[in-house]
Structure formats: C-alpha cells, structure tokens
Amino acid sequence: MESKFYSKLFTYIETNNSFSSLDFSDIGFEKHSEALLSLKSLKSFGHIFLISEVKRKFWCLTEKGEEFLRNSKQKNVQNILEVDKLFNSLVKVKEENVKSVDENFLKECEENNYIKKGEIDSLEVSKGNSFADNLVLADDLTADMIGSDSWNNLVLSSYDYNKMGLMEKFGGLHVIYNFGTAIREALFELGFKEVHVSNYVEKYSKEDADKALEETDNVYSVHLNENTNEEEACSKTYYLRSSLFNRLLSEISILKSVPSKLFTIGKVFQNREFDSLDIPEYHSLEMMISDVDLDLSNVLGICAALFSRLNIGFTDFKQAYFPYTSPTVGIYLYNEILDAWISVGKGGIVRPEVMKKLGYNDNMFILRLGFSLERVLLNKNETDDMSNLL
C-alpha cells in the first residue's frame, strides 16, 4: 500500500473519527471491492485501528432498471449529454455512487421498480488504543529507512504468512520447438508418418565438394572434386542430412510396394564460419514420399500444401543440384527485410540407381524434400539474422 494512501487515511480519520468502506470515493478508491481489500490490510497494524465488519443496505438496479439503461444507451449513443435525469441517476446507482442523487428521487425510482435495496458487507474503521497523530505506517522496511534512522518512527505491518507471493514469470517454449511442433501437425494432416533418427549421426563431406555426376553404362556415380581433400572435408563437418536420408530410405525400402509418406526432424552440426544465414547448428526437416507415377510437380505441390498450412507465402522454385536426386529444384522464400530470395531447401526425385538397389519397380518413385527450419523461420518471423532465433 502506498504512503499517499496512509497520509490520506490519517487525515480523513482525524477529521471524522471513523468511516465506512462504503465511503470509498472519499478515501481515493473507484470501487467498493478495492476499498475492502486495502482496509482489511489495516488489521496487520494491530491496535492502531479498530476494524469491524458490518452489513449495510445499498441501492442496486432491478431487471427493469438494467433494461432501461441498455435501451437508453442505444438511443443516446450519438449524444450522451442529452440523457434524462432517470438515466443519470441509474448510472450512479450502478456505479455505487448515490451520494449526489436526491433521496426523494431514489424512493420514486424504487416505487417504479427501477431500483431496490440489497445487503452488502462493509467495514467500519475507527481510531484504536494505539492511534496517534504522528504515526507513520509502512508495509516494507527499505535500505533508505535503515540508513536515515527513520525506521524508529515507523509502524510496520505484521508479516502475513497466508499472503501469496509474487507470481514468477517462467520461461516459454523455444520458438524453434514451437515451429517444429507446427510443422509436425501440418505434416500429420497431409498423411505423413514421423521417423525418429536422433541416434544416427554420420560424417559427411561438404555438399559443395561434390562435382557433377558421371554416367557410365547408364549408372550414375558421384565423385569428389579432384582438388578437395576428402579427409579434410570430412573433419570439418558432422552432417546429419545423409543419415536422415539413409534412415528414411531404409524405412521406405521395408514398405516397397506400399505408398508411404515419411518425415523426420533432426539437428545438423557444421564446424565452419557462420553469418546471418548460416549457423554451426541448425535443424533439418527431411521428407520422403514413395508411390507410383510421381514427378516433380508432386514436389511443388507438397511444398505449397505445407507452406499454406504454416501461413508462409512468396515461394519460388529454381533448378538446383543435390547428390541423391535428379532432377532437383531449389526452394526459395522472399525475405522482406533483406529484400531478397533466400534458399530454404531442396527437393527432387531420388536417382534411378538408388531405386534399383532398393529393388523398386520402374513405375515406383521416391520424392525427397529437405528444409532448414531456421531459414524458414527467418522469413516467418521477419528477421534478417538467423542468430536472433537462438
């Protein structure tokens, strides 16, 4: 309770010797309920105040009075100053402020069934045995009071062991966790099944270290760039994407002839320099769909369906390269802050030699899509730096 309230309370009780909580407007309160809460706390000061509970009669509106107020508000909404005497009086009754209303007019309103008398619990406050004019009340002992020795003249309220403490503000769920949950729900709606691959981490050389495919006897093979040291490339990156891909492939190979939709979300660790669009650790979403007669249009359709459920727009697709898929499209989202198209992932059709090794028929296809959750969030949260999401 503030010191201003105490000083106003002392001044009022010195003048009137006692008062009721129904006089709440005189001691600085807007509502009777607020006055009750504050005046009850005065009990903690011992015998300085005498506080007793009293049931009092008060005026309240009847159903007829409530109906009159509702209709009058609708009629006078354009010119509220022209409301009649009855409307003004009923408003004051509703606000528990009837001191300014003529007593005879209140009785007239009661006779016309606009108001009635009810009972209310109130508090009567008067001077106690320990009351003195020079007392200073306080709820808390501060460092300033101790330093200035003003605590000698203070009357501190007794400790309330039943009083609840301040509510602590607990931490919320991380934005990436919430976004991952939203993606899971969207994919479940699209008929996908989640595969957990958190225990599968492999070393994998940089994607940039791979060069174009070489075709020999209708079999594709991927070679590392001749100028790249494979051992050095592997030591720089712990890449989860290949393990996600392999794990999903193994799950799909078990189903083979059965159409399936699988996805997984896992962390990617990259030991390299980072900037606003690249960080050493991020989350990757991998999706695979196996069915007959699939083509690249299905990849675009799945992206559109997923992004529409996540309320993400401004999507673009461009030709791209990925070692395991051909053809491959790059997926881009427009970032308004950067005023640029940001690459968020890639998708395509798994290569024929992989399908052949898994024992699929020629009319069966596997689609693969991969996204960086942080890059998609970069656009959704309208920020220009991925580190702001950590």
From TrEMBL:
> Pfam families this protein is in?
tRNA-synt_2d (PF01409)
Instruction: Report the InterPro entries cross-referenced here.
Output: aa-tRNA-synth_II (IPR006195), aa-tRNA-synth_II/BPL/LPL (IPR045864), Phenylalanyl-tRNA_Synthase (IPR002319)
Entry-linked PROSITE patterns: AA_TRNA_LIGASE_II
Q: Name one GO biological process term.
A: translation
* Residue ranges of every copy of the Aminoacyl-transfer RNA synthetases class-II family profile domain listed in the record: 182-378
User: Among its keywords, does the record have Aminoacyl-tRNA synthetase?
Assistant: yes
Q: Which domain of life is it from?
A: Eukaryota
Keyword check for Nucleotide-binding, yes or no: yes
SUPFAM superfamilies (alphabetical): Class II aaRS and biotin synthetases
GO MF terms held by the record: aminoacyl-tRNA ligase activity; ATP binding; tRNA binding
Q: Which UniProt keywords apply?
A: Aminoacyl-tRNA synthetase, ATP-binding, Ligase, Nucleotide-binding, Protein biosynthesis
Q: What is this protein called?
A: Aminoacyl-transfer RNA synthetases class-II family profile domain-containing protein
Q: Which organism is it from?
A: Nezara viridula (Southern green stink bug)
Upper lineage ranks? Answer: Eukaryota, Metazoa, Ecdysozoa, Arthropoda, Hexapoda
